[in-house]
Amino acid sequence: MSADTSRIRVTDLNGVMRVEFVDRDILDEAAIRQINTELIKRVEAAAAPCMLISFRGVEHLSSAALGTLITINSLSKKRGGQLRLSDIKPSIMEVFTITKLNKLFHISDTTEKALEGFGRK
């Protein structure tokens, strides 16, 4: 998969994979499948994957995208890693709260706060 068609941007921050989404709206099933595939490849390539997914710039998120997050969280934990989420807009955070996913994920207001938590479970 070439970088031009990737739905995510990944940067390394001292051993933590910071993932940002290219799109403002994460609603399209094909795009979500592609994101899922890309994230799984990255998690499986790391010994103990530490991943921070930033939702900065994301306006809308489908329930299928939530399923991807649950999968990535589970896979990261099985491999001895961590997944953290940050920069979630209030309208999207409401969905996490209603579905009780705010209890499943480590969610921080900012990327900086989320990064501070890595290494401590």
What is the count of helical runs?
5
Strand order of the largest sheet: 1-2-4-6-7
Question: What is the succession of H and E elements?
Answer: EEEHEEHEHHEH
**CATH level 3 topology:** Transcription Regulator spoIIAA
Report the CATH C-level class: Alpha Beta
Beta-strand content bin:
15-25%
Distance between the termini: 33 Å
Annotated CATH homologous superfamily: STAS domain
Sum up the overall morphology in one term.
Answer: globular
Write structural notes for this entry:
Helix content is 42%, strand content 24%. The protein has one domain: 2-Layer Sandwich (Transcription Regulator spoIIAA). It has a five-stranded mixed beta sheet with strand order 1-2-4-6-7. Strands 3-5 form a two-stranded parallel ribbon. 26% of the residues are buried. By secondary structure, the chain is of the alpha/beta class. The model has no long low-confidence stretch (mean pLDDT 92).
Which short descriptors sum up this protein?
121 residues, alpha/beta, Transcription Regulator spoIIAA, 5-stranded mixed β-sheet, 5 helices, 24% strand
